[in-house]
Design goal:
Number of helices of chain A: 12
Oligomer: homotetramer
Distance between the termini of chain A: 18 Å
Strand order of the largest sheet of chain A: 3-2-1-4-5-7-6
Radius of gyration of chain A: 20 Å
Largest sheet of chain A: 7 strands, parallel
Largest interface: A-D, 42 and 42 residues
Low-confidence stretches of chain A: none
Mean pLDDT of chain A: 97
Helix content of chain A: 25-40%
Structural class of chain A: alpha/beta
Strand content of chain A: 15-25%
Number of strands of chain A: 14
Order of helices and strands of chain A: EHEHHEHEHEHEHEHEHEHEEHEEEH
Chain lengths: ~350, ~350, ~350, ~350
């Protein structure tokens, strides 16, 4: 049993971490912090968990690094970017292992961080130490990490389908387009006019493009996979569902195809590429036949669905992925990294 | 052409007033006020109306009673209770006619107001002057009013089906139960955690019972109709739609019925009562045959649907009503009263 | 490990049974039948379960009683009423234990069945044998049952809050009103115009009243609790959520109350009644303080939330309950009964 | 006053035509046909219109070409493709003017029709006669047309933003990508499992790609604008809203840009192109400043919102459009063409 704490447990990914860690067979959840709810029981704040003995016993506390370091071996940070680093620095010094769900340690370059997040990086000395928390790609590094920077929701939906194709040279590193649709929980439990029910229901709209913050980690990781600088066109849209991201990727195969046999050959290569890379990845579902990703098949779980189509008319490869932005896109993925850090199987507490 | 202004035009009912008054054939909308949007054009703040020449020309201003009195003959107040009275006092003194959408002038008793709204009434001397803005009931009084206190959304859904039955002595004045379901716009454009998309979607919940503020006007009007003090059981629920109120009323017929012929006789009396009372009410739709109210048949319009069933097993009369809380429950009804004040037909600008 | 089969596994409650039984630690799911999907793998038909080894291995088959009796000890019937009985008769003769999710064996009287379901009961000789599958009320009888008639969704939301009050004589058996709101999955995976997205979204409507079929079991069970014939006013409404039932009950306390001290006294009695009766019921959540039921706190789980308020103005007791119509209202409750039949704890495989 | 009929008035676009034509100041709606509802009054089938005198008087009839030709001068066909042509042939011979909302006469080539709709064209001799019903592009031809093939919903969302840029040579005719999101009414009032509330709510999914039928008209019209064969990548997605299409277009500017001044120069050219072309198009809203299209700003009306962004990082032009698939994407656009055919202003009966 690992002693575990959550700092910032009152947002949507904090709440999901509470759910996952309360039911995790190898975890004792010893502390959850929230400035807003300090003093209240978890069962009060999240009636959904009221039946769980842990939720009845546990109370939210004010965050305090020294105390947390005594209470837990591994600490999840579910805080806004900028704030996460403030806790990461002392907690690492006090010997804790960290899984950070914020964007603070995802990019390797403090300059890139500043470009996209518009303030100086609060702890640049830790950037090298941090491991990018995408378990399907960095399992080995996560195993030995003391600081995991859990990958973002949009980035996960883009990187898992694209990295294998780039590594195998099946697609060109240029001209990549990612068109993403996200449920409203992606905005966090943020009390803003834009996220009121009436403003979101019966509405669909793009936002935050063409230079969304998540591009910093997306392009970093694709560039590493391609071994050349990759620039991505990324357009997120807000759609009226609670959860789920659906990403449509427009990719250019490295080799031209137009005949049926060329198409079949390429199709088999793509299939083989994915099957090989994800053979031992329990959360990656490669769809077959006519099946296409649908967010309703993944919400609530830590899975990503991936399907692809070759279009002989345009010469493009279109890949579609679907995941739950709060689970595989945030808290579930963080627990998956935690499992790897602890030597548990990926799926412990997640299926 | 009447010169008209709206004070507090940035909430949902304010926005709907803008829509209705911009397209009203007998209205020149000369001023709209909003502290938050002062200086901006209506077309910017409400892109929905961007094509309308009026919306392109008109800018939001800070509310100023003296200026408004020069700009408009009739002024709609779409302000929170308590605040509305602050504008009503000077505007009436300056000779304007007012249609107030708040609850400030709906009850006749300052004591009842204080009991339900928990603060002293800000202008008790105006209570007698005000006419309750339920056109189907108070058409004559509205015609000559200088201050119309437009009826609330839940009250309208309860009063229109119940008042005729009480007046005709068809139901007992005791034991009335109103169970209501409202869309989220009923909470106004209020930036609170409770009204975030993720908190409302895939959720249904009761709130504000057993003593909701709207009971003050509901019981006042039913008591007048029954000529005896009426107490009502009222339970509102929040449901994940933008607009619409559906109210289910549980009523006790004055005379017992159990045989088929007694049921038929009573059924004909109820039908005759409604048909007579609402013969000249263009916005009341009495459903026939198997048809039942559905909010989707009334949203966007100023109609109320009413249907009823007698239950021989329980001896009760069940009446169901549906309306759009922002139109017949607020802005449409206010415009209907305005039409009557101006000598226009009820439906001018509303169909 | 119990060998278990599901007959009619392609509807919403069938799908939920598959989910619950695949992850049940004491169950081996050996057969699932569906005329429509016979031959296809569970993983194909329900992509949501595609990761589960059981779903990859198991194929839907045509229903065949003799074969099923060889494959399973306990069989869940998730079939329409009328059809369920056709399978129940031979399966019981072949020695299987049955948990039937249909309405076929819920009422004790073949005449009442005919009155409400408008056809002769297909197997009246089994009615006496069947145990009503409401575990919080009939735990002892379920333990030894060979045929459990799992309680309906609306009935569960009404009976669990009402039976204890009637048994303790805290409320009158007359004048009970249940106003219920249900998500669209309550209609089953029924391909009808009424249940299309566009017909349900942004819509709220009553249906099937005043004499809904579920009244047959509701009144039967309340009459047993009250030891006198009970007639109930029940109005169901369809609301645009996938899952969840919220029921508002209007009840008349047996003793009049009006003073604060009478109210407090009665309030304590109600609280004590519920706490005593449900002390050992892991799925009943009695809400305290200001908390009110919300379907979003129960969807996905087997819990029922219950809260109550006394209204000194009207003299009524209002009780509100919330549950997931597919879990506590159908498949979860069926598994709970199964657990009791097998001597497992109620919560096995359900939390 | 024009005498007008609607053939196939029971689907979503048929219903919207009824709404628009009942309130059209220059139209007398003399006949509406529906096999399913023949004999019933419009007010019964569509309770939403129950207040309209026309809806109370008018009954659905069986479709009969000879009778229709006597009843109406202009006839709207709101029928499935393949079926529409069956009525078009005799009605044209009988001297009626037609506005066809189906896909039957949108493409000029019977071979292309067969390729995309998988059956022989039912009346190829009419293809040349038909005018493509996109009023902003073909106003002059529509004026004199006897057969208008009203443009499809997705095509309108793609063509209006793209055609001017191609005509002015501002973008390359190659590599065009259109990623579209549509509300469920786009599927029509089709009673299929896929469109049930529970299957669509809390779900997002792609469908019908990479070779959707609408590509036939999209590519035909873009090729005409570009004066070269254009192939388009088009991916439609189904999202849980009743109405609305949001399309994100990924376009390659004809001239490379990377510096700020090149970007500004191109930006001004794009703005000038749109402003010039759509100066007299009352339904095209070019958004300015920070504003981005949102389906909630266009649903219920005949407008299309268009905004664009240049991305110096990728060298692409991204254009976003939003419209109501049932109004500007179907019935509103059809009425707009009708207005032009009759010599009315575009906006008659539409604002």
């Amino acid at each position: 049993m690992k002693k575990v704490a959550i700092v910032g447990a009152s947002g949507y990914s904090g709440e999901e971490l509470v759910r996952l860690l309360l039911q995790h067979p190898r975890v004792e959840l010893t502390a959850v912090t929230s400035r807003q709810y300090a003093g209240q029981k978890v069962a009060q704040v999240f009636p959904k968990f009221a039946h769980h003995p842990g939720a009845k016993a546990l109370r939210f506390t004010e965050p305090n690094a020294e105390l947390l370091a005594k209470q837990a071996e591994v600490i999840f940070l579910a805080l806004p970017h900028g704030v996460a680093a403030e806790y990461a620095v002392p907690l690492l010094q006090l010997g804790c292992q960290l899984v950070d769900l914020s964007a603070d340690f995802r990019v390797k370059s403090a300059a890139v961080y500043k470009e996209f997040y518009t303030h100086d990086h609060p702890a640049p000395e830790l950037l090298e130490k941090a491991v990018y928390g995408l378990p399907e790609v960095y399992r080995e590094q996560i195993r030995d990490a003391s600081l995991v920077a859990s990958a973002g929701c949009y980035p996960t939906s883009i990187l898992l389908p694209t990295i294998p194709l780039l590594r195998d040279g099946l697609i060109k590193p240029t001209g990549i387009i990612a068109d993403s649709l996200s449920g409203v929980s992606g905005a966090g439990r943020t009390v803003k006019l834009d996220y009121l029910f009436v403003e979101c229901n019966e509405s669909v709209r793009p936002y935050g493009f063409p230079k969304h913050r998540h591009l910093s980690e997306i392009e970093q990781e694709l560039s590493l996979a391609a071994e050349t600088a990759v620039t991505v066109q990324f357009t997120p849209h807000l759609i009226p569902v609670n959860r789920g991201i659906l990403t449509t990727l427009y990719l250019a195969p490295a080799n031209h195809f137009s005949t049926a046999s060329e198409l079949n050959e390429l199709s088999e290569k793509v299939a083989a590429c994915y099957k090989t890379v994800y053979a031992d990845s329990p959360f990656v579902r490669l769809l077959e036949g006519e099946a296409l990703p649908d967010t309703k098949n993944v919400t609530g779980g830590n899975f990503i669905e991936i399907a692809w189509r070759l279009d002989a008319r345009t010469g493009r490869l279109i890949v579609i992925s679907a995941l739950d932005n709060i689970v595989k896109g945030a808290s579930g993925q963080a627990v998956q990294s935690f499992n790897i850090m602890c030597g548990f199987s990926d799926t412990t507490g997640l299926v």
